[in-house]
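wait is this the right file?? whatever heres the structure
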């Protein structure tokens, strides 16, 4: 105990200074309790404005699905860059077309693959999407969040048009939050944190459940030597596992690292969808609101010096590495998912 006290910087201070610091810590504790009230009021304010935003999101959903065709006046939105690009495209179109060879653009309903493209432009969500998830997510027409106060929580709703994969029209994900400091570490409080989540049951049509896969294994009888083939059903990687999160133990100390990692990622994705993707969906669709925290910009002053001879020797290896990276990133190295080409429907 004595060694612990001596290692604490606070106890190396003169007694009079230490008393003042302890008084400041009491003020900090009051600050934490005031923060709790601040975040509770902020949550209620969020609920208020959620109702104000809702008509905008409903109108967006109607345009995305094609149920509403916006008027010419509603479509008049161009900044200077977009106006310049539009003018150049019109000139280019005029130069390449003759009076007798006017190409007719197909009349597309709504915005195909809107949410799929938006999700693929959000790295944390894109990492969850497998190739076989995409045909299903093409049927996603609307995503909304509904916030509640008692208990502090929010519910995500994923609306789907009729499809060949499952009978649900809405899939839901519920998150419950805690807005009280942890008694064991009061000063670590930074606001509400998600403490648990709950998914929903997906009513898959026969043979369409992509969250599981079947494998065949051969088994040999120890005594007789006879061989038989057995079929096993195992879990399969899929975005739709998002709706079946693991159940944490009642005692957080009993949680294993794998479950903790899955839930941490799940909470991150839930917050991302609620706070970033839903409010700014069109900007994720166009790739204007990308999130990439994996890489930080480096200052020019931080560039390392290198030896020219070593650089020449490693040039071939670098080219091979570059080629490999391009293949793994779709040749372009750009993580942005371009809005899909519209297909005539």
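ok assuming it is, sequence goes like this
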């Amino acid at each position: 105990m004595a060694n612990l006290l001596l290692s604490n910087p606070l106890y190396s201070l003169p007694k009079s200074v230490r008393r003042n610091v302890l008084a400041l810590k009491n003020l900090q504790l009051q600050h934490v309790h005031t923060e709790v009230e601040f975040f509770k009021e902020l949550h209620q304010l969020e609920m208020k404005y959620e109702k104000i935003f809702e008509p905008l999101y409903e109108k967006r959903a109607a345009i995305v699905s094609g149920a509403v065709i916006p008027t010419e006046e509603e479509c008049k939105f161009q900044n200077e860059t977009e106006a310049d690009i539009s003018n150049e495209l019109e000139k280019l179109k005029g130069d390449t077309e003759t009076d007798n060879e006017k190409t007719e653009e197909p009349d597309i309903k709504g915005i195909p693959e809107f949410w799929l493209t938006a999700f693929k432009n959000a790295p944390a969500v894109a990492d969850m999407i497998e190739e076989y998830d995409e045909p299903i997510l093409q049927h996603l027409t609307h995503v909304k969040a509904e916030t509640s106060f008692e208990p502090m929580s929010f519910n995500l709703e994923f609306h789907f048009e009729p499809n060949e994969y499952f009978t649900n029209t809405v899939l839901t994900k519920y998150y419950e939050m805690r807005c009280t400091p942890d008694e064991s570490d009061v000063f670590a409080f930074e606001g509400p944190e998600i403490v648990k989540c709950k998914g929903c049951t997906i009513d898959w049509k026969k043979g369409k459940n992509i969250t599981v896969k079947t494998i065949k294994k051969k088994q040999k009888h120890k005594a007789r030597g006879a061989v038989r083939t057995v079929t096993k059903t195992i879990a399969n990687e899929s975005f739709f596992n998002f709706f079946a999160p693991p159940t944490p133990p009642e005692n957080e100390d009993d949680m294993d690292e794998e479950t903790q990692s899955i839930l941490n990622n799940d909470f991150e994705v839930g917050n991302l969808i609620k706070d970033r993707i839903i409010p700014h969906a069109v900007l994720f669709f166009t790739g204007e609101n990308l999130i990439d925290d994996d890489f930080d910009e480096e200052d020019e002053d931080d560039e390392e010096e290198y030896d020219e001879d070593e650089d020449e020797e490693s040039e071939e290896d670098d080219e091979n590495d570059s080629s490999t990276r391009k293949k793994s990133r779709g040749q372009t190295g750009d993580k942005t998912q371009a809005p899909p080409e519209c297909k005539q429907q």
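Strands lie at 140-148, 153-160, 170-178, 193-198, 212-220, 227-235. so i think its the right one actually
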